[in-house]
Amino acid sequence: MYKINRNIAYTLLLVLVIFGTLSTVNKTAFVSAASTIPKGTTVGGVDVSNLTIPDAQDKLTNQVLRWKDYDDYVIEVAEDIITIPAEQVKFDIQSTIKQLEGQIKKPWYDFFQKKGPVHIPLIADFSFTEEQISLFPAYIEVEQVAREIVRIATVLGEKQFTLAIDQTNEEVVIAENYWEVPEGFLFANEVVEELNGKKISSENQFSFLGNVAENVSFYNEEDGSFVASLLYSLLLETNVEIVERHSQKVIPAYSEAGIEVKVSEKELLDFIVKNPNPNAITIKAEIVDNNLYMSLLSVPQKTKYHYTMENSEEVHYRTITRYNNDLLPGHKQTLQEGKNGKRVEVYRVAVAENGEELTKELMSKDFYLPTPEVVLKAVKVISEPPASDEPTTDEHVENNDSGNDRIDQSEDTSKDNDFMKEQEENEIDDGIYESPNIQK
Questions:
Q1: Hey, how many other C-beta atoms are within 10 angstroms of the C-beta on 88?
Q2: What angle do CA 373, 375, 378 make, to 5 degrees?
Q3: Is residue 36 very low, low, confident or very high in pLDDT (cuts 50, 70, 90)?
């Protein structure tokens, strides 16, 4: 019995020794396997066979730097070449190494199984600047281009590629017009040159102050408002949202009521729009033979747009009569010509391909104050009253500040009061008769 127990003890001891030896060898083998990378393994196309993890990280860092320094991205779009700096690509080497370690790690129970090579891409990211986005035609999906740039970077591939063009998404003119440049608008050229080629990106806003006025050497309010007004007239023929627009309060000679814009740096009055479409809109503008030609280019839409002006109403001017002692009896002089004001509503109409009217959107209500007529007349001749010891006065005649002009209060004061009352009412209306889309 004792002998049997001793044999059992020896057997158990032998099993423990063997198990401990195997365990030590297995752990050593695991450490050895984890310390070097399997033969044939690549990361981003770079061979890291039999390297340690730190050595592999150093090699990848150096290869990425060499890849960036060698050349930049060259993208062919139709007949244009667009260059994008490779430096804009951001690589995450540490996250890539962690992913590699997870791939080559071998558990203790898999000691006798030989680990094969691993192939993984580098982890990278990229984004365009606003200026770079503007270089691409509206029909090019820049997000798709960005994904292609990242794909190339993850394998440190060749940085030159051509974008396939879908002819159905090619830019066409969606609105165009031209206005004669008013005499004396000397700074319009620089504003037009800055505006030419600008893009209103998809789902983004476009500010005339921020994108145009702030980039010219000298911004003149009249010149800038002229250019912005023509742009506004074209945008009314699209579905672009009018976020902020201010009226000049007068009808400019180059346009008509309701189709004008005021853009002022001093008063911080901007013209802001938003493009709700999936494709960008390109603005083309140039001055030829003293005419400003402007057009909008984008992918054509099935729905067409145009604007109409409705509920137009003339606001008649008042006449203010003043009297002057220096004029001969029966004579009069016009100091200021009268001009009627106007109220008008501007609508944008959406029309289907079959000509059916789909929607009608109120874009703005504008009010333009009338200019009063000012007439100077001779003082009425008043017959001499019978002689009296006490002096007499004409209560209907009152000297104004100059001492020469006289105003017939009995005839004109009521008119002036009525006119001033209407002016005040008009000023109240003026706050109402603005675009409902204005942000103040």
A1: 17
A2: 170
A3: confident
Q: Cα(23)–Cα(159) distance, rounded to whole angstroms? A: 50
pLDDT score, position 17:
53
Instruction: Inform me whether the pLDDT recorded for 292 exceeds 80.
Output: yes
Contacts of 153 (CB under 8 A, 6+ apart): 86, 89, 91, 122, 124, 126
Task: State pLDDT tens for residues 93-145.
Answer: 999 999 988 888 766 655 556 667 889 999 999 999 988 887 887 667 788 89
For residue 10, the model assigns a pLDDT of 60
Average pLDDT of the chain?
Answer: 81
Contact 382, 328 (CB under 8 A): no
CA angle 177, 260, 341 (to 5 degrees): 130
pLDDT above 90 covers a percentage of the chain that reads: 55
CA 167 to chain centre: 26
Give the torsion sign (CA, 217, 221, 223, 224): positive
Name, in order, each residue with C-beta under 8 angstroms of 92's C-beta and a sequence gap of 6 or more.
122, 123, 124, 125
CB 315, CB 339: distance < 8 Å: no
Strand 332-336 and strand 373-378: pairing? antiparallel
Q: Which of 416, 425, 284 is nearest to 341 (CA)?
A: 425
Mean pLDDT of 319-335: 87
Rounding to the nearest 10 degrees, give the CA dihedral for residues 157, 161, 167, 169.
60
- Residue 326 Rama label (left phi>0; alpha psi -120 to 50; beta): alpha
Cβ-in-10-Å burial (0-12, 13-18, 19+) of 120 comes to middle
Buried b (16+ CB within 10 A) or exposed e, 127-157: ebeeebbbbbbbbbebeebbeebbebbbbbe
- How many CA atoms are closer than 13 Å to the CA of 115, on its beta-carbon side? 27
Query: Tell me, what's the pLDDT at 378?
Result: 86
> For residue 31, what pLDDT band results from cuts at 50, 70 and 90?
very low
pTM value > 0.85: no
Highest mean pLDDT among 11-25, 363-377, 381-395: 363-377
